[in-house]
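Request: Give me one sample?
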Amino acid sequence: MIRQEFIELLRCPETQQTLAVADEALVQSLNAAVERGQLRNRSGEPVQDRIDAALVREDGTVAYVVIDEIPILLQDEAVPLDQVATTSPENH
């Protein structure tokens, strides 16, 4: 996973809020939605690949997927978390 020192420097490109590593329960929920073909990014495109990790925006509403230890910090690629069951910030 990405080093914590690096994560502390990252910000949401839309709101400049801090980001935190998603907990395992959220990653599992995201992957379950991927497997069902129900997870979409902000641009409406289906997320097709399993997610290794994600960074959750401070307000708990959006996640940015991490692929090969590289966070994809593009607004259109962000995943709205209202698509999965575990969405409250304290669960991340």
About this structure: The chain has one domain: 4-91. Residues 4-91 form one domain. Helices lie at 4-7, 24-35. The radius of gyration is 12 Å.
